């Protein structure tokens, strides 16, 4: 049997293997990767320290998933080829099995290895692209969310494999209906499939343990100096920031840990912000900080612009406030695997959406801090669907190295007053046009009330006629009905005009006719 405890061959410190499935452990004293065999412990080189993060998890926390108790015994930190890090926690179950708890931008997924008879038939990652749908074994249909590359940047604790440090890690992330999630890792020995689901810390019985382990979680902005002008600037989310702009010299800076690298100077003028960066406010019961601003556009017969404000909450991650034609929407991430599309339709969360536009969106202005390596001129293919008060946006990015990613966002129309109250701003301009996801003020309730009122008039005429012993003049009744119908008939026309204006800039308008061309 392999050793469960021994001395590190590099420094002599004690190295312990708590899981029977672990093959290597990182020495707590010298950061050496120690592999165990039946006879001895072997030194396999050193590994970097784990980068600081706001993760609520830590080694040795205990939890339960689907009735099985487990313990977090190791962690691998990956560096994405496009920048950014994420954590994979090695989970040792009490029954001797193991799995991975993936953590990225406040989102968690519990995964376990699934030996599949069909593994040999899995497509190579070069054959896959974001948005493609296919079936993995008996686990159902998936949507490719990302085809990516990464390297192992750091590790701690125990691991069930001996990784090749800084070697390329090829992976494909898949998302399915509900909370279904899977990853295919392309290793030299062949593809390995890990299947599970998106979870919360509460699902794992870790919420209370994490709070006890870190009773107070404070995220302090990292104070740095611009390498271009030496002016001071702060990172609100230093563990995930990838790009930031200098507020003094308009430099676009690359972020790597606590180091900033000058990339370019952005062209003037500085963008006019409806909500100043750094503004804090409570929106939908969550405290956010406004940390970034993008101006983007699409071009059809003319160019259409909109603005996106990036919101950050330490435990929740990132959300968006989108301003388009002086209308506002609140954006939250959605799972591509939970979305089905066909022709001009999309379905998500039991709602039917209709296609509004397909276009290539371009970044026109950048200001503030971002969790990806954004720059002016970046493009993405987008498809927008609407089901007022909601909109559904699918954005697909394909890179020269063959990697690709699809991001889904569900946006809810927000009244101006709610934005003003949340972030302490006043007098936001009101748009005259109709937003694609703006609710129609005329509802079916109006026509129900109209019908009930007409019935009430008829009933009143009948009661009065019965009491008087003679019928009420029919002309008078019809006149009353006609007067009462003016408001709903006017509302019906207003509702039709409202919908027509909603779709007037869409090539997929249901009101479009051949004469419009």
From TrEMBL:
The chain crosses the membrane at residues 446-464, 476-496. This is DUF4178 domain-containing protein. The keyword Signal does not apply. Keywords: Membrane, Transmembrane, Transmembrane helix. Gene3D superfamilies: 2.20.28.160. Residues 62-199, 277-398 form the DUF4178 domain. The keyword Cytoplasm does not apply. InterPro entries: DUF4178. It comes from the Bacteria. It comes from Schlesneria paludicola.
């Amino acid at each position: 049997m392999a050793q469960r405890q021994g001395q590190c061959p590099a420094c002599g410190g004690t190295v312990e293997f708590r899981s029977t499935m672990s093959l290597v452990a990182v020495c707590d004293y010298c950061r050496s990767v120690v592999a165990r065999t039946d006879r001895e412990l072997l030194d396999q080189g050193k590994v970097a320290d784990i980068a600081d993060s706001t993760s609520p998890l830590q080694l040795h926390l205990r939890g339960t998933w689907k009735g099985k108790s487990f313990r977090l015994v190791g962690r691998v930190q990956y560096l994405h080829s496009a920048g950014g890090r994420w954590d994979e926690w090695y989970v040792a179950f009490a029954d001797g099995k193991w799995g991975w708890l993936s953590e990225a931008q406040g989102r968690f997924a519990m995964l376990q290895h699934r030996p599949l008879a069909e593994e040999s038939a899995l497509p190579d990652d070069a054959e896959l692209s974001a948005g493609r749908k296919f079936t993995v074994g008996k686990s159902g249909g998936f949507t490719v969310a990302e085809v990516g590359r990464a390297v192992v940047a750091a590790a701690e604790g125990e691991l069930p494999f001996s990784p090749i440090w800084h070697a390329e890690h090829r992976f494909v992330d898949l998302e399915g209906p509900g909370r279904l999630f899977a990853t295919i890792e392309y290793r030299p020995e062949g593809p390995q499939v890990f299947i599970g689901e998106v979870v919360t810390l509460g699902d794992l019985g870790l919420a209370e343990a994490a709070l006890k382990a870190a009773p107070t979680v404070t995220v302090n902005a990292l104070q740095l100096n611009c390498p271009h002008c030496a002016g001071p600037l702060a990172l609100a989310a230093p563990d995930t920031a990838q790009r930031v702009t200098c507020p003094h010299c308009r430099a676009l800076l690359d972020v790597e840990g606590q180091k900033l690298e000058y990339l370019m100077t952005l062209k003037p003028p500085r963008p006019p912000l409806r909500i100043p960066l750094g503004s804090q406010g409570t929106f939908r019961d969550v405290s956010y900080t406004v940390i970034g601003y993008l101006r983007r556009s699409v071009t059809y017969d003319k160019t259409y612009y909109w603005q996106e404000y990036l919101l950050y909450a330490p435990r929740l991650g990132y959300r968006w406030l989108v301003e388009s034609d002086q209308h506002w929407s609140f954006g939250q991430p959605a799972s591509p695997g939970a979305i089905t599309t066909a022709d001009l339709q999309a379905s998500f969360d039991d709602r039917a959406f209709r296609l509004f536009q397909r276009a290539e969106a371009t970044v026109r202005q950048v200001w503030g801090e971002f969790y990806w390596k954004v720059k002016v001129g970046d493009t993405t293919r987008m498809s927008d669907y609407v089901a007022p008060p909601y909109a559904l946006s699918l954005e697909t990015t394909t890179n020269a190295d063959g990697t690709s990613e699809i991001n889904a966002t569900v946006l809810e129309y927000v009244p101006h007053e709610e934005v003003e109250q949340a972030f302490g701003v006043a007098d936001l301009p009101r748009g005259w046009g109709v937003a694609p996801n703006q609710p129609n003020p005329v509802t079916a309730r109006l026509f129900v009330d109209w019908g009930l009122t007409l019935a009430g008039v008829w009933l009143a005429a009948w009661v009065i006629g019965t009491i008087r012993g003679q019928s009420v003049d029919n002309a008078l009744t019809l006149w009353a009905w006609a007067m009462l119908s003016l408001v709903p008939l006017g509302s019906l026309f207003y509702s039709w005009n409202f919908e027509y204006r909603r779709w007037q800039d869409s090539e997929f308008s249901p009101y479009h006719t051949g004469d419009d061309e």
